[in-house]
């Protein structure tokens, strides 16, 4: 089975310098263009048989554009939403830094942000998603997951069986990661590919 992890395109939150997380902002016009370029690229090079997506607007719009290009089934799953950032959702970054400053040395991985989830909670969610996909869709040739930077980083950590909190994987707008499961072997095909934006 091949797995594509795809981040959404640029959202309106990117333009107004707020913390997004569970705040639900739609794609910008540029974000929609990025999503169409990604969709054309995926349709030509790596068409999935199924798309699983976060229902948050920026991801659901990206997934819908991809689905239109591919024609395969699209399912939304609340577990694919971004890190639950609680009280930080939608706050301007400067305001968040004053109201909810990080503890010295950073927040321990097991302690959640007020009203949200911890880094450990996020990783557990990613582990559950990955295992569920591998179990429920065993035999599928290629599945695309359209989600968010934080969750995608946790999915990659889970796929690579890395410890929590040691490594973060960045993903640009409509960045694509591709992995493969071959019996007991886990293969990294490529990471954060954005060729489609520069052609």
UniProtKB/TrEMBL annotation:
Organism superkingdom: Bacteria
InterPro entries cross-referenced by the UniProt entry: His_Pase_superF_clade-1, His_PPase_superfam, PGM_Phosphatase
Protein name per UniProt: Histidine phosphatase family protein
Species for this entry: Sporosarcina quadrami
């Amino acid at each position: 089975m091949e797995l594509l992890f795809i981040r959404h395109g640029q959202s309106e939150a990117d333009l107004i310098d707020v913390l997004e997380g569970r705040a639900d902002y739609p794609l910008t016009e540029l974000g929609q263009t990025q999503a169409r370029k990604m969709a054309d690229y995926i349709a030509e090079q790596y068409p999935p048989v199924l798309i699983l997506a976060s229902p948050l607007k920026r991801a659901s719009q990206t997934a819908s554009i991809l689905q239109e290009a591919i024609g395969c089934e699209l399912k939304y799953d609340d577990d694919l939403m971004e890190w639950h950032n609680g009280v930080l959702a939608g706050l301007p970054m400067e305001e968040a830094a004053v109201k909810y400053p990080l503890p010295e040395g950073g927040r321990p991985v097991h302690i959640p942000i007020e009203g949200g989830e911890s880094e450990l909670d996020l990783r557990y969610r990613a582990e559950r998603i990955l295992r569920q996909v591998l179990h429920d869709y065993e035999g599928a040739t290629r599945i695309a997951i359209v989600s968010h930077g934080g969750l995608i980083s946790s999915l990659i950590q889970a796929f690579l069986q890395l410890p929590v909190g040691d490594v973060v994987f960045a993903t640009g707008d409509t960045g694509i990661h591709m992995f493969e499961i071959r019996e007991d072997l886990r293969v990294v095909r490529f990471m954060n590919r954005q060729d489609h934006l520069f052609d």
